[in-house]
Each structure stands twice: as C-alpha cells, then as structure tokens.
Amino acid sequence: MLVVAPLVVALVLQAFVCYFVILRSDSLTMLEEDTYGLLSERVSSRAGYLENDMVLRWSETGETAQKLSETVSSVLAEHGASAADIETASPLALEIIDSAADDVLSFVRRSEIDGAYFILIDGSQDGLSGEGPRRSALYVLDSNPDVTLENDSDLLLAACPISLAKRTDIALASSWEATLTMGANPDETAYYEKPLAAALEHPDAAVDDLGYWGLPVDIGSTGSRSITYSMPVKDEGGHVVGVFGIEVSVNRLVTFFPYRDLDEAGQGSYILAIGDESSSGLAGSAVSGDRFSLGVIASTGAVQNLYTDSNSLAVLADDRGYLTASADDATGREAAVAASSVIKLYDSTSPFSSQQWYLVGLVPENTLFRASQSLETNLLVILGVSFGVGVLLAAVAAWFSSSRLRRLMGEVRGVGEARGVDPA
Description:
By secondary structure, the protein is α+β, with helices and mostly antiparallel strands.
C-alpha cells in the first residue's frame, strides 16, 4: 500500500487537473456557441431567400396598379361617372373589370405567383356589411406559376363576369363566382379592407407605401390558403376604386424553409411567424428574461407541434443569450433552442411598419447540442476508465516490484525460525 498510495494520489491529481482544464473550461461552452451561431446563420440565410422573393418579386405590383388606375379613370371619364358610382355587378363595374382584364392577365402570366385579384369597391356601401357581402372582381389562379403556357391552360378564372370568361376563353375554376364573396370575419377580409383603410387614412401617401402583406386566407373558397400582398388602386382624382393584389399559396411558401437543413434526422422545425413592436427584441437585442409571443403563419417539421399552442409560439431569452421555447409539460420533452431572423417587408413610411415577420428555427436542445454533450460524456468516460486502469496498473506494478522484497523477507523469516530466532 505504501508503494501504491503515491501513484493513486498522482492519478487523482491528474484526473482533477484534466476535469477542470478540459470539462470546466470554456471549450464546451464555445462549442455550443458555435453550434448556435451556425443555427442562426442557417435561419438567416433562409429568411434572406424568402425576403428577396417577397419584396423583389411577388410585391412588384406597382406598375400594374398604375395601369389599372389609368384604365378605371378612362372608363369613369367615358361614362361621366366617379368612384362613388361603382356598384357591385353594375354595368359600370362589369365594364371596368372587362377593360382591366388584359393588364391583370398579363401580370399573372409573367409573375411567379399563385393568383392575382382586382376587387372593386361598392360606392353604395360603407365598408363590408352583411353576411358574405359580394364585390365585382377579377380573380385569376395560376396552377403552374413556374412556367408560362401559350394557350393559358394553366390559368383559371375564380371570379369574373361570365362574359369575360367567354371573351378570354380561359377555363373557370370549380369555385367560380360572377362576383367575389367576401368573408364575414375581419381576418378573412383584411387583405381587402386594410389597404383601403390605409388609403383613406393617408390620402397623400404614395400607393406603393400602402401595400399590405396579409396572413393566410382562402379567397373565394378555392380550397387553398395563401398569403397575400394588396395595394389600393386610385383613379386620377385620387379616389380609391379598388384593391389589386397577389397571393402565394402556403404550400409553396414552405418550400423556402425545409426543416431537414436544421437537423438531418428531421428533429427541427421552421416557423414563419408574425409579431408587433413588442417583439422587436427578436432582431438581436433580447436580454435574459425577455418573453415574446408570435403568431404562426406557416411551419415545416413535426417538432413545432410540441412548442406551439393555438397557432402561437412563445419564446424566452435565457441567461446564455439563446432563445428557447418550452414544450407542454404533458409531453415530457425538453425545451427547444430557437433562432430567429427578421423578414423586412415594410419601409419605415408604411402604415404597417409595426407588423414584423420572422423566420424562426427550432431544434430540441439535446439534439442541437448533442455534439458538445457527447464530447463531455465521452471525456468523462475516458477520464474514469483511464483513472481505473491507472490504479489497476499501479497496483500490479507495485505488486511485482515488491515481490523480491517479499521473497527476501520470507527467506529471513525462514532462517530465523531455523535458528530459533524471532525474525522481528
């Protein structure tokens, strides 16, 4: 034991040094920070792709809106009428829609969108009243927005006068209506009402500054939910005559953020969410304890079901500087780490600038940090095994190194007994 004890003490000291130098240093923390940084970069990259398409491609409606303004003004001038004279399904409204059709159809053919609509106001009514009010409209669907077919076989008319369908020889959608039925719920008509209201509240604002990105809605009960971008259309006198806009289906939208690029095993989710001014801390200025509540627009990956509730997502900034989302206690799952990136859709001059869109990436904490956790576990195992093996080797070495001394003591004891002398 006297030989083994110093070796054991040396091994214990070595184990403590390794533990504090490797495991209790900043190495593992830095590895986790790098992992979180990669997650944030991946989310930011996906958000950038989506923002470019939303801002630079899908919302480029200003030129067509200007053409529609000129067309409406021309028809009104021809009839000596004004915006207040436009009534749903009236001859004036039908002529405006027919005259505007070529511009709208041309826009749909060259734009990679799932649909476009031009909805006229009803000058005889103040806003949308009654259950399921109707508006004269041209609503065109594109079943294959990535290609343009010469015979327009990829286009469908979901709402328009029947005379227009005969003139253009474009097929009618199964949900076709002569006049577009508007929803009774404000959320279902926000794509129409909000740009109109903004135009009335800001009469001197440029039309391009009044564009509004709407949450998923099923326009005309076509069976497909889409986000929308709408802007008011005014006549030459500055009076609002309708709304022109586009839609992009949610099914197409989610292809911009495939969840497997967060985790190869599929243990991750992307969430396209919306917040307000209170969620501005998600842009990078969050401090420990800040809590944010977001509305879910669209998502990919099954993991998000554990962390969202009634189409809302709550995230919390922890003391490590990470965003986290907690699962329902009933699921027994660990918290998820979240990274967010702002999708900037509005200029500061827009009346909707307080509306913030975000792309959030979610990965369960044990999944995201499994590399650092695995490294820590392996180092502890290696440390424990090496310590045990070291003690065992020290004991064996001490045993063999003391064997000569034991033999010598045995010989001395034997000689002493032979002579009748006590070896001690």
